Give the backbone structure.
Amino acid sequence: MTITPLHPDTANALGRLAADIDGRLDLPDSPEWSTVSQAWNLSIAQRPSAVLTAASPTDIVKAVRFAGAHGMRVSAQPSGHGATRALDDTILVRTTALDDTWIDAEARIARVGAGVKWGALQAALDGTGLTGLTGSNPDVSVVGFCLGGGLSWFTRPFGPGSGALSAVEIVDAHGAHRWISDDNAPELMWALRGGGGEFGIVTAVEIDLFHAPQITAGRIVFPATDARAVLRAVAAATEAAPPELTLWASIMHFPPIPELPDAIRGQSFCFVDTALLGAPGSLDALLSPVRAAGTVLRDTVRPVQPSDMAAICEEPVDPSPGTHSSTTITKLDERLIDLVLDRTGTPGSTPLTQIQFRHLGEAAAAGRPGAVDLRRCEAEFAVTMLAVAPVPTLLDAASAAMTALRGELSPWSAGPTVPTLLGPDDDSPEHAFDADTLAKLCRLKEAVDPSYVVRGNYPVHGR
Protein backbone atom coordinates (compact mmCIF):
# COMPACT_ATOMS: atom_id res chain seq x y z
CA MET A 1 0.00 0.00 0.00
CA THR A 2 1.28 3.43 -0.97
CA ILE A 3 1.17 5.82 2.01
CA THR A 4 0.65 9.50 1.24
CA PRO A 5 2.30 11.67 3.90
CA LEU A 6 0.20 14.32 5.60
CA HIS A 7 0.84 18.01 5.10
CA PRO A 8 3.14 19.14 7.96
CA ASP A 9 0.51 21.56 9.31
CA THR A 10 -2.09 18.78 9.39
CA ALA A 11 0.34 16.36 11.04
CA ASN A 12 1.26 18.94 13.68
CA ALA A 13 -2.39 19.68 14.45
CA LEU A 14 -3.19 15.97 14.73
CA GLY A 15 -0.23 15.63 17.06
CA ARG A 16 -1.89 18.13 19.40
CA LEU A 17 -5.09 16.08 19.27
CA ALA A 18 -3.11 12.95 20.12
CA ALA A 19 -1.75 14.63 23.23
CA ASP A 20 -5.27 15.61 24.33
CA ILE A 21 -6.94 12.18 24.28
CA ASP A 22 -6.80 9.10 26.48
CA GLY A 23 -6.88 6.67 23.56
CA ARG A 24 -4.46 6.34 20.69
CA LEU A 25 -4.12 8.35 17.49
CA ASP A 26 -2.07 6.78 14.71
CA LEU A 27 -0.84 8.76 11.70
CA PRO A 28 0.39 7.36 8.36
CA ASP A 29 4.01 7.36 9.56
CA SER A 30 3.16 5.15 12.55
CA PRO A 31 4.88 1.73 12.61
CA GLU A 32 1.44 0.19 13.27
CA TRP A 33 -0.29 2.04 10.44
CA SER A 34 -0.88 -0.91 8.13
CA THR A 35 -2.55 -2.81 10.98
CA VAL A 36 -4.67 -0.08 12.56
CA SER A 37 -5.91 1.31 9.23
CA GLN A 38 -6.76 -2.07 7.68
CA ALA A 39 -10.37 -2.96 6.93
CA TRP A 40 -11.86 -6.41 7.47
CA ASN A 41 -11.94 -6.76 3.69
CA LEU A 42 -8.25 -7.13 2.84
CA SER A 43 -8.86 -6.11 -0.77
CA ILE A 44 -9.51 -2.54 0.31
CA ALA A 45 -6.49 -0.42 1.22
CA GLN A 46 -8.00 2.29 3.38
CA ARG A 47 -6.30 5.69 3.36
CA PRO A 48 -7.61 7.73 6.28
CA SER A 49 -5.70 10.76 7.52
CA ALA A 50 -5.52 9.27 11.02
CA VAL A 51 -6.96 6.40 13.03
CA LEU A 52 -8.36 7.11 16.49
CA THR A 53 -8.67 4.11 18.79
CA ALA A 54 -11.00 5.76 21.28
CA ALA A 55 -10.73 5.00 24.98
CA SER A 56 -14.07 6.68 25.72
CA PRO A 57 -16.78 8.80 24.13
CA THR A 58 -14.85 11.86 25.33
CA ASP A 59 -12.07 11.04 22.87
CA ILE A 60 -14.64 11.01 20.08
CA VAL A 61 -16.08 14.35 21.19
CA LYS A 62 -12.60 15.85 21.00
CA ALA A 63 -11.96 14.32 17.58
CA VAL A 64 -15.22 15.63 16.11
CA ARG A 65 -14.63 19.13 17.48
CA PHE A 66 -11.07 19.03 16.16
CA ALA A 67 -12.26 17.96 12.71
CA GLY A 68 -14.84 20.73 12.59
CA ALA A 69 -12.26 23.34 13.56
CA HIS A 70 -9.67 22.13 11.02
CA GLY A 71 -11.85 21.43 7.99
CA MET A 72 -11.49 17.67 8.33
CA ARG A 73 -13.99 14.82 8.44
CA VAL A 74 -14.62 12.01 10.90
CA SER A 75 -15.95 8.51 10.25
CA ALA A 76 -16.52 5.43 12.36
CA GLN A 77 -15.66 1.82 11.63
CA PRO A 78 -16.25 -0.23 14.78
CA SER A 79 -15.03 -3.66 13.64
CA GLY A 80 -13.54 -3.07 10.19
CA HIS A 81 -16.61 -4.16 8.24
CA GLY A 82 -18.29 -1.99 5.61
CA ALA A 83 -15.14 -0.50 4.15
CA THR A 84 -15.44 1.79 1.13
CA ARG A 85 -13.35 4.50 -0.47
CA ALA A 86 -15.60 7.11 1.17
CA LEU A 87 -13.59 6.77 4.37
CA ASP A 88 -10.36 8.00 2.79
CA ASP A 89 -8.93 11.25 4.18
CA THR A 90 -11.00 11.08 7.36
CA ILE A 91 -10.16 10.64 11.01
CA LEU A 92 -11.23 7.01 11.26
CA VAL A 93 -12.65 6.15 14.68
CA ARG A 94 -12.33 2.66 16.15
CA THR A 95 -14.77 1.99 19.00
CA THR A 96 -13.51 -1.40 20.18
CA ALA A 97 -13.02 -0.17 23.76
CA LEU A 98 -16.67 0.90 24.05
CA ASP A 99 -17.71 -2.62 24.98
CA ASP A 100 -20.18 -2.24 27.85
CA THR A 101 -23.26 -4.48 27.70
CA TRP A 102 -26.32 -4.05 29.91
CA ILE A 103 -29.40 -6.26 29.62
CA ASP A 104 -32.81 -5.79 31.24
CA ALA A 105 -34.49 -9.12 30.48
CA GLU A 106 -37.76 -8.11 32.10
CA ALA A 107 -38.04 -4.96 29.99
CA ARG A 108 -36.59 -6.78 26.94
CA ILE A 109 -33.96 -4.12 26.35
CA ALA A 110 -30.20 -4.23 25.80
CA ARG A 111 -27.85 -1.27 25.95
CA VAL A 112 -24.50 -1.85 24.26
CA GLY A 113 -21.44 0.21 23.44
CA ALA A 114 -20.38 0.81 19.86
CA GLY A 115 -17.62 -1.79 20.15
CA VAL A 116 -19.92 -4.70 21.03
CA LYS A 117 -20.29 -7.38 18.37
CA TRP A 118 -23.34 -9.53 17.78
CA GLY A 119 -21.57 -12.70 18.89
CA ALA A 120 -20.95 -11.24 22.35
CA LEU A 121 -24.47 -9.89 22.77
CA GLN A 122 -26.14 -13.11 21.65
CA ALA A 123 -23.96 -15.13 24.05
CA ALA A 124 -25.11 -12.88 26.89
CA LEU A 125 -28.72 -13.73 25.99
CA ASP A 126 -28.34 -17.50 26.33
CA GLY A 127 -30.87 -18.82 28.83
CA THR A 128 -32.96 -15.63 28.89
CA GLY A 129 -35.58 -16.72 26.36
CA LEU A 130 -34.77 -13.57 24.41
CA THR A 131 -32.87 -12.77 21.23
CA GLY A 132 -31.58 -9.73 19.42
CA LEU A 133 -32.09 -9.24 15.70
CA THR A 134 -28.72 -10.77 14.88
CA GLY A 135 -27.42 -11.30 11.39
CA SER A 136 -25.34 -14.13 9.96
CA ASN A 137 -21.87 -13.08 11.19
CA PRO A 138 -20.95 -12.76 14.89
CA ASP A 139 -18.04 -10.41 14.12
CA VAL A 140 -20.25 -7.55 12.95
CA SER A 141 -20.91 -4.76 15.44
CA VAL A 142 -24.42 -4.25 16.78
CA VAL A 143 -24.22 -0.51 16.06
CA GLY A 144 -23.02 -0.79 12.46
CA PHE A 145 -25.58 -3.49 11.69
CA CYS A 146 -28.52 -1.48 13.03
CA LEU A 147 -27.45 1.81 11.44
CA GLY A 148 -27.35 0.09 8.06
CA GLY A 149 -30.77 -1.52 8.28
CA GLY A 150 -29.68 -4.96 9.40
CA LEU A 151 -31.14 -8.03 7.65
CA SER A 152 -31.55 -10.51 10.49
CA TRP A 153 -32.50 -14.12 10.98
CA PHE A 154 -35.60 -12.65 12.60
CA THR A 155 -36.43 -9.85 10.16
CA ARG A 156 -39.54 -11.69 8.97
CA PRO A 157 -41.32 -11.73 12.35
CA PHE A 158 -39.80 -8.62 13.92
CA GLY A 159 -38.55 -6.30 11.16
CA PRO A 160 -35.02 -5.16 10.26
CA GLY A 161 -32.35 -4.58 12.89
CA SER A 162 -32.72 -0.83 12.49
CA GLY A 163 -36.31 -1.03 13.68
CA ALA A 164 -35.12 -2.33 17.06
CA LEU A 165 -33.29 0.92 17.87
CA SER A 166 -35.10 2.60 20.75
CA ALA A 167 -32.41 5.12 21.77
CA VAL A 168 -28.97 6.18 20.54
CA GLU A 169 -26.01 7.79 22.29
CA ILE A 170 -24.41 10.02 19.70
CA VAL A 171 -21.67 12.58 19.20
CA ASP A 172 -23.19 14.95 16.68
CA ALA A 173 -21.36 16.94 14.04
CA HIS A 174 -20.89 19.85 16.46
CA GLY A 175 -19.28 17.67 19.12
CA ALA A 176 -22.30 17.49 21.44
CA HIS A 177 -22.65 14.13 23.19
CA ARG A 178 -26.11 13.01 24.25
CA TRP A 179 -28.75 10.30 24.26
CA ILE A 180 -31.56 10.73 21.76
CA SER A 181 -34.85 8.91 21.15
CA ASP A 182 -38.14 9.40 19.40
CA ASP A 183 -39.17 11.65 22.28
CA ASN A 184 -36.52 14.32 21.74
CA ALA A 185 -35.22 13.75 18.18
CA PRO A 186 -37.75 11.82 16.08
CA GLU A 187 -36.39 12.90 12.69
CA LEU A 188 -32.81 12.04 13.57
CA MET A 189 -33.88 8.67 14.97
CA TRP A 190 -35.70 7.97 11.71
CA ALA A 191 -32.48 8.65 9.80
CA LEU A 192 -30.36 6.52 12.11
CA ARG A 193 -32.68 3.55 11.57
CA GLY A 194 -31.00 2.45 8.37
CA GLY A 195 -29.58 5.71 7.01
CA GLY A 196 -26.04 4.76 7.96
CA GLY A 197 -23.25 6.62 9.73
CA GLU A 198 -23.83 10.03 8.16
CA PHE A 199 -25.56 11.74 11.05
CA GLY A 200 -23.07 11.52 13.92
CA ILE A 201 -20.67 9.11 15.59
CA VAL A 202 -22.70 6.62 17.61
CA THR A 203 -21.13 5.56 20.90
CA ALA A 204 -23.90 3.29 22.23
CA VAL A 205 -27.41 2.10 21.42
CA GLU A 206 -30.41 0.79 23.25
CA ILE A 207 -32.23 -1.93 21.32
CA ASP A 208 -35.32 -4.04 21.77
CA LEU A 209 -34.95 -7.72 22.55
CA PHE A 210 -37.52 -10.26 21.42
CA HIS A 211 -39.34 -13.21 22.97
CA ALA A 212 -37.72 -16.42 21.71
CA PRO A 213 -38.30 -19.27 24.19
CA GLN A 214 -37.51 -21.83 21.48
CA ILE A 215 -35.28 -21.42 18.44
CA THR A 216 -34.65 -24.19 15.90
CA ALA A 217 -31.98 -23.47 13.33
CA GLY A 218 -29.22 -24.92 11.21
CA ARG A 219 -27.89 -25.75 7.76
CA ILE A 220 -28.80 -28.49 5.28
CA VAL A 221 -26.10 -29.29 2.74
CA PHE A 222 -26.73 -30.77 -0.72
CA PRO A 223 -24.46 -31.45 -3.70
CA ALA A 224 -24.40 -28.51 -6.10
CA THR A 225 -25.81 -30.84 -8.76
CA ASP A 226 -29.10 -30.85 -6.81
CA ALA A 227 -29.29 -27.06 -6.73
CA ARG A 228 -32.02 -26.66 -9.33
CA ALA A 229 -34.45 -28.97 -7.55
CA VAL A 230 -33.50 -27.65 -4.10
CA LEU A 231 -33.97 -24.01 -5.07
CA ARG A 232 -37.36 -24.79 -6.57
CA ALA A 233 -38.35 -26.58 -3.37
CA VAL A 234 -37.19 -23.62 -1.28
CA ALA A 235 -39.18 -21.23 -3.47
CA ALA A 236 -42.29 -23.34 -2.98
CA ALA A 237 -41.71 -23.60 0.77
CA THR A 238 -41.44 -19.85 1.15
CA GLU A 239 -44.84 -19.32 -0.47
CA ALA A 240 -46.51 -20.85 2.57
CA ALA A 241 -43.88 -19.98 5.18
CA PRO A 242 -45.22 -18.45 8.40
CA PRO A 243 -43.54 -15.21 9.53
CA GLU A 244 -41.58 -17.01 12.24
CA LEU A 245 -39.73 -19.10 9.61
CA THR A 246 -36.69 -17.80 7.72
CA LEU A 247 -35.16 -19.67 4.77
CA TRP A 248 -31.96 -18.74 2.94
CA ALA A 249 -30.57 -20.80 0.05
CA SER A 250 -27.22 -20.50 -1.68
CA ILE A 251 -24.81 -21.96 -4.19
CA MET A 252 -21.27 -22.13 -2.82
CA HIS A 253 -18.05 -22.79 -4.75
CA PHE A 254 -15.17 -23.24 -2.33
CA PRO A 255 -11.89 -22.12 -3.91
CA PRO A 256 -9.06 -24.65 -4.32
CA ILE A 257 -6.81 -23.04 -1.72
CA PRO A 258 -4.67 -24.91 0.84
CA GLU A 259 -6.21 -23.08 3.82
CA LEU A 260 -9.47 -25.03 3.38
CA PRO A 261 -10.08 -28.59 4.68
CA ASP A 262 -9.88 -31.43 2.16
CA ALA A 263 -13.63 -32.11 2.43
CA ILE A 264 -14.60 -28.77 0.93
CA ARG A 265 -11.51 -27.51 -0.92
CA GLY A 266 -12.45 -26.94 -4.55
CA GLN A 267 -15.92 -28.40 -4.01
CA SER A 268 -19.37 -26.94 -4.73
CA PHE A 269 -22.53 -27.26 -2.67
CA CYS A 270 -26.07 -26.04 -2.30
CA PHE A 271 -26.89 -24.80 1.21
CA VAL A 272 -30.28 -24.23 2.82
CA ASP A 273 -30.00 -22.23 6.03
CA THR A 274 -32.98 -21.82 8.29
CA ALA A 275 -34.21 -20.40 11.58
CA LEU A 276 -37.58 -20.88 13.22
CA LEU A 277 -39.04 -19.31 16.33
CA GLY A 278 -40.50 -22.60 17.47
CA ALA A 279 -39.93 -26.28 18.18
CA PRO A 280 -38.14 -28.76 15.86
CA GLY A 281 -41.34 -30.66 15.09
CA SER A 282 -42.87 -27.61 13.44
CA LEU A 283 -39.79 -27.06 11.31
CA ASP A 284 -39.53 -30.70 10.23
CA ALA A 285 -42.91 -30.51 8.54
CA LEU A 286 -42.05 -27.25 6.77
CA LEU A 287 -38.65 -28.54 5.58
CA SER A 288 -39.73 -32.02 4.50
CA PRO A 289 -40.17 -31.11 0.79
CA VAL A 290 -36.84 -29.29 0.80
CA ARG A 291 -34.98 -32.23 2.32
CA ALA A 292 -36.62 -34.55 -0.23
CA ALA A 293 -35.46 -32.41 -3.16
CA GLY A 294 -31.89 -33.73 -3.12
CA THR A 295 -29.28 -35.86 -1.39
CA VAL A 296 -28.69 -34.49 2.11
CA LEU A 297 -24.96 -34.55 2.83
CA ARG A 298 -25.18 -32.85 6.23
CA ASP A 299 -28.02 -31.56 8.39
CA THR A 300 -27.33 -29.43 11.47
CA VAL A 301 -30.91 -28.25 12.13
CA ARG A 302 -31.59 -28.54 15.86
CA PRO A 303 -32.76 -26.58 18.91
CA VAL A 304 -30.26 -23.76 19.53
CA GLN A 305 -29.42 -20.98 21.94
CA PRO A 306 -29.10 -17.36 20.78
CA SER A 307 -25.31 -17.69 20.65
CA ASP A 308 -25.59 -20.61 18.21
CA MET A 309 -27.11 -18.37 15.54
CA ALA A 310 -23.59 -17.23 14.69
CA ALA A 311 -22.63 -20.67 13.42
CA ILE A 312 -25.52 -21.37 11.05
CA CYS A 313 -23.90 -19.97 7.90
CA GLU A 314 -20.37 -20.86 9.03
CA GLU A 315 -19.11 -17.49 7.83
CA PRO A 316 -15.47 -16.56 8.40
CA VAL A 317 -14.68 -14.11 11.18
CA ASP A 318 -11.07 -13.53 10.19
CA PRO A 319 -10.30 -10.78 7.65
CA SER A 320 -10.14 -11.94 4.05
CA PRO A 321 -9.88 -10.44 0.54
CA GLY A 322 -12.87 -10.22 -1.75
CA THR A 323 -15.93 -8.30 -2.78
CA HIS A 324 -19.69 -8.58 -2.55
CA SER A 325 -22.87 -7.00 -3.79
CA SER A 326 -26.63 -7.47 -3.59
CA THR A 327 -29.98 -6.75 -5.14
CA THR A 328 -33.61 -7.57 -4.41
CA ILE A 329 -36.14 -9.53 -6.46
CA THR A 330 -39.91 -9.83 -6.53
CA LYS A 331 -39.97 -13.61 -6.86
CA LEU A 332 -37.77 -16.69 -7.12
CA ASP A 333 -39.33 -18.44 -10.09
CA GLU A 334 -38.07 -21.23 -12.32
CA ARG A 335 -36.87 -18.89 -15.03
CA LEU A 336 -34.74 -16.91 -12.59
CA ILE A 337 -33.38 -20.08 -11.00
CA ASP A 338 -32.41 -21.42 -14.41
CA LEU A 339 -30.73 -18.12 -15.35
CA VAL A 340 -28.71 -17.95 -12.14
CA LEU A 341 -27.58 -21.57 -12.35
CA ASP A 342 -26.62 -21.16 -16.00
CA ARG A 343 -24.42 -18.21 -15.01
CA THR A 344 -23.10 -19.35 -11.62
CA GLY A 345 -23.96 -23.03 -11.13
CA THR A 346 -20.47 -24.42 -11.70
CA PRO A 347 -17.04 -23.08 -10.70
CA GLY A 348 -15.95 -22.80 -14.31
CA SER A 349 -18.95 -20.64 -15.18
CA THR A 350 -18.31 -17.85 -12.70
CA PRO A 351 -15.67 -16.06 -10.60
CA LEU A 352 -18.24 -15.80 -7.81
CA THR A 353 -17.80 -17.86 -4.66
CA GLN A 354 -21.41 -17.66 -3.49
CA ILE A 355 -24.81 -16.46 -4.56
CA GLN A 356 -27.48 -16.49 -1.88
CA PHE A 357 -31.24 -15.94 -1.77
CA ARG A 358 -32.58 -14.58 1.54
CA HIS A 359 -36.34 -14.82 1.90
CA LEU A 360 -38.04 -11.64 3.04
CA GLY A 361 -41.65 -12.17 2.06
CA GLU A 362 -43.95 -10.18 4.27
CA ALA A 363 -41.06 -9.00 6.41
CA ALA A 364 -41.20 -6.12 8.83
CA ALA A 365 -44.76 -6.29 10.01
CA ALA A 366 -43.19 -4.96 13.22
CA GLY A 367 -40.37 -2.56 14.04
CA ARG A 368 -40.15 1.19 14.28
CA PRO A 369 -40.23 3.15 11.00
CA GLY A 370 -36.94 4.40 9.64
CA ALA A 371 -34.92 5.04 6.51
CA VAL A 372 -34.97 1.27 5.99
CA ASP A 373 -38.64 0.30 6.14
CA LEU A 374 -39.36 -3.04 4.51
CA ARG A 375 -43.07 -2.37 4.75
CA ARG A 376 -42.59 -0.11 1.73
CA CYS A 377 -40.61 -2.79 -0.11
CA GLU A 378 -41.96 -5.25 -2.66
CA ALA A 379 -38.97 -7.59 -2.37
CA GLU A 380 -39.64 -11.26 -1.86
CA PHE A 381 -35.92 -12.09 -1.67
CA ALA A 382 -32.63 -10.33 -1.17
CA VAL A 383 -29.92 -11.71 -3.45
CA THR A 384 -26.34 -11.49 -2.23
CA MET A 385 -23.22 -12.21 -4.26
CA LEU A 386 -19.79 -12.93 -2.78
CA ALA A 387 -16.35 -13.57 -4.21
CA VAL A 388 -13.17 -14.48 -2.40
CA ALA A 389 -10.53 -12.74 -4.51
CA PRO A 390 -6.93 -12.90 -3.26
CA VAL A 391 -5.50 -11.24 -6.38
CA PRO A 392 -6.62 -8.07 -8.25
CA THR A 393 -7.44 -9.89 -11.49
CA LEU A 394 -9.95 -12.12 -9.71
CA LEU A 395 -11.39 -9.08 -7.93
CA ASP A 396 -11.97 -7.25 -11.21
CA ALA A 397 -13.55 -10.33 -12.78
CA ALA A 398 -15.83 -10.86 -9.80
CA SER A 399 -16.96 -7.21 -9.75
CA ALA A 400 -17.76 -7.39 -13.45
CA ALA A 401 -19.69 -10.63 -12.98
CA MET A 402 -21.75 -9.13 -10.16
CA THR A 403 -22.61 -6.09 -12.26
CA ALA A 404 -23.61 -8.31 -15.17
CA LEU A 405 -25.75 -10.60 -13.02
CA ARG A 406 -27.53 -7.68 -11.36
CA GLY A 407 -28.35 -6.44 -14.86
CA GLU A 408 -29.73 -9.82 -15.92
CA LEU A 409 -31.87 -9.93 -12.78
CA SER A 410 -33.36 -6.49 -13.50
CA PRO A 411 -36.65 -7.91 -14.88
CA TRP A 412 -37.28 -9.24 -11.38
CA SER A 413 -35.96 -6.15 -9.57
CA ALA A 414 -37.76 -5.03 -6.43
CA GLY A 415 -35.85 -1.77 -6.12
CA PRO A 416 -33.17 -0.78 -3.58
CA THR A 417 -31.37 -3.30 -1.42
CA VAL A 418 -30.75 -3.21 2.33
CA PRO A 419 -27.78 -0.88 3.08
CA THR A 420 -25.93 -3.45 5.20
CA LEU A 421 -25.78 -5.70 2.12
CA LEU A 422 -24.11 -3.07 -0.07
CA GLY A 423 -20.68 -3.92 -1.40
CA PRO A 424 -17.54 -1.79 -1.70
CA ASP A 425 -18.38 -0.88 -5.31
CA ASP A 426 -21.99 0.10 -4.57
CA ASP A 427 -21.12 3.76 -4.22
CA SER A 428 -24.45 5.22 -5.34
CA PRO A 429 -27.02 5.85 -2.57
CA GLU A 430 -29.75 5.00 -5.10
CA HIS A 431 -28.74 1.35 -4.64
CA ALA A 432 -30.03 1.51 -1.07
CA PHE A 433 -32.83 4.08 -0.96
CA ASP A 434 -35.81 5.11 -3.04
CA ALA A 435 -35.94 8.70 -4.27
CA ASP A 436 -38.21 10.02 -1.52
CA THR A 437 -36.20 8.42 1.28
CA LEU A 438 -32.91 9.63 -0.18
CA ALA A 439 -34.22 13.18 -0.54
CA LYS A 440 -35.35 13.18 3.10
CA LEU A 441 -31.98 11.82 4.26
CA CYS A 442 -30.16 14.55 2.33
CA ARG A 443 -32.33 17.24 3.90
CA LEU A 444 -31.64 15.86 7.36
CA LYS A 445 -27.92 15.67 6.65
CA GLU A 446 -27.89 19.33 5.66
CA ALA A 447 -29.83 20.22 8.82
CA VAL A 448 -27.69 18.34 11.36
CA ASP A 449 -24.28 18.54 9.65
CA PRO A 450 -24.18 21.48 7.21
CA SER A 451 -20.36 21.41 7.13
CA TYR A 452 -20.26 17.68 6.38
CA VAL A 453 -17.96 16.92 9.29
CA VAL A 454 -19.22 13.33 9.68
CA ARG A 455 -18.90 10.93 6.77
CA GLY A 456 -20.52 7.50 6.59
CA ASN A 457 -19.22 4.62 4.52
CA TYR A 458 -22.10 5.15 2.07
CA PRO A 459 -22.67 8.93 1.93
CA VAL A 460 -26.22 10.00 1.13
CA HIS A 461 -24.89 13.13 -0.58
CA GLY A 462 -22.43 13.83 -3.36
CA ARG A 463 -19.85 15.61 -1.19
